[in-house]
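Before relying on records like the one below, remember that each one covers exactly one chain. Contacts with other chains, cofactors or solvent are not represented anywhere in the record.
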Amino acid sequence: TKANFSPSLTYTSGTATGDGSTTVFSINSGRAVADVLVIVNGVILVPTTDYTISGTNLTFAAAPAASAEIQFRYLPI
């Protein structure tokens, strides 16, 4: 609800570009699959189905296409 909304929370983000073969990308440390949104060419991916996270490695189930725009949105924790 609007009463529970906290506008002071912000997120950080990162970007990468697909090359059609790379499946592992580095992300910020201390993150889990539940607090990272991954968007490829405007499509939000499904955690644990489309990607997993281990340490600072985010691994895609399938490599993003060449020239794909990849966005990582780190939710506040």
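The chain has a mean pLDDT of 92.
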